[in-house]
Amino acid sequence: MDLIDRKLLRELQLDSRRSVQVLGDAVGLSASACHRRIRALEDAGFISSYVAKLDASRLGYTMQFFIEVGLTSQSEGVLEAFELAVAEIPEVLECHLMAGQSDYILRVVCRDHEDFERLHRRLSAQLPGVARIHSNLSIRTVKARTGLPL
What we know:
Elements: H1 3-14, H2 20-27, H3 31-43, E1 63-71, H4 76-86, E2 92-97, E3 104-110, H5 113-126, E4 130-138
Antiparallel strand pairs: 1-3, 1-4, 2-3
Helix pairs in contact: 1-2, 2-3
């Protein structure tokens, strides 16, 4: 990866909907050279996908929680069962296996308090291996970045 690839990745992180011609102009390439570079970055796995970032509050998701989960065991079977089950819950946007006090931290969205109560009950009652749950309500997002520093 060279300097032009890094510039191209930065530009794509800012707005991947721009045409190849506009992206090429931004990094000093022709449209065809820019297209070849993008394809090579995709093929090499540097670009894993393209997504649309949605406005959660406009879609009714007005609450965001970070939930710390402790499991009954660290065995491979318990970890795998938990991860498979949590992957099926649409409100769970992220699930991270942690080193520290909690086994996992989940980032979830909810529409309101009743929605959160339903989700909390589902997490504590239906997820395998859950020993404890500690929920933290996000009051306001101070910084949210989807791109990586390049």
